[in-house]
Amino acid sequence: MSLEALPQEIFNRIALALDVADLAALALTSRRLCTMARDDELWLERVAADFGDRGLVVGLLAEAGIDIAELADSSPDLVPWRPALAPSTCGIAGMQCYRDRLARAFPASEDERLARVKHGESEIDQIKQQLRDGPPADDVLCEAAFRLLKIQELFPASAECYYLWALICYMRNALFPALQLLDIGQAVNSNFDPIRELRAEVQATADGVFGSGGEAPLLDTTCSEPSPQLAAALAAIFRRFDCDRDGVLNAKELGALVRVSNGQSIPPAAVSQIIHAFGGSVPTRNGRKVSGWDLRSLCSFYVAQSMQDPQETRQDLAKLGFDPQFLTKR
User: Fold this and answer.
1) How far apart are the C-alpha atoms of 291 and 219, rounded to whole Å?
2) 120 contacts 157 by C-beta, under 8 angstroms
3) What pLDDT is attached to residue 88?
């Protein structure tokens, strides 16, 4: 079968494996191949392959709760990553998008290139400082992620942008998006050591949180809620220490729980700090408010602890009478 007889989708897969010069030479061999080589979807896929898939990055950030889609779509500083493909622009819009991205990545003069490098380095340093000053608020993370989009458009081979996007996701406890962004960054530059180091850290956290070797997961896939297994265990633990059955662990009851899980008592002032960190003035079943934790507070504490040190959560469960691997009552 000749290339001209192939469906456009199959031709596009082949064409994506060619460099641009070879694709241009192929297009000159016949009118049919010229038409096929001008396909908009082919060139938009080339944009993603050669300059980074902005849609994928924006989608992964959205999974982490960092929504910059509207900013990216409306920004005059960014080349539209998927321009509207009207019939009248068929074979033009995709190629024009590629040309625009090429011009952004490779400026015409050396002076402009050096100025961009200086500006990009300054922007990266400012973003790093923003993240170091943390824990940053959501709007700060969104701003940092969007600024990185503008930097990545100028420097598509910058693995550091993917590293910082992944770090933002990690700060949001979004482990899977962070790992995907690190994998993309590693494909861009396999010699960028910070990516390898952060990936090892994120993967270790994921293994602890989601379990390895047959372990039950501690959290759900969003890392914002306990897994069904942990939720069931925490509900049983809550009932055990809620001695007056009012639906709240007061200071005395919470202190007893901490004594069992830590192996020793802690001062009342420390118990009070723990209460206010994850609970506060909580209504009991009869409507009276007391200082303590409800079940939601207990779950929030163990979600936070599991992200910081999943093994400590499993150790706590073992001391409280649960199998640390399967999270079932022993």
Assistant:
1) 27
2) no
3) 47
For the record, the structure tokens of 133 come out as 């000053």
Give percent of the chain with pLDDT exceeding 90. 83
**Number of other residues whose CB lies within 10 A of the CB of residue 148:** 24
- Contact of 287 with 203, CB cutoff 8 Å: no
Q: 3-state DSSP: the chain helix, strand, coil percent, rounded to 5?
A: 65, 5, 30
Question: In the beta sheet, which residues pair with residue 147?
Answer: none
Kind and range of the H or E element at 320?
none
Per the CB < 8 A criterion, the answer to whether 46 and 20 are in contact is yes
Q: Does a cis peptide bond (omega within 30 degrees of 0) precede residue 135?
A: yes
Burial class (CB in 10 A: 0-12, 13-18, 19+), 218: buried
DSSP character string of 197-244: HHHHHHHHHHHHHH-STTPPPSB-TTSSSB-HHHHHHHHHHHHHH-TT
Q: Is 198:167 a contact under the CB 8 Å cutoff?
A: yes
* Structural contact between residues 196 and 176, judged by C-beta atoms closer than 8 angstroms: no
Distance of CA 62 to the CA centre of its chain: 8
The answer to whether 290 and 282 are in contact (CB under 8 A) is: yes
Q: How far is CA 109 from the centre of its chain?
A: 36
> Which residues in the chain land under pLDDT 70?
1, 81-91
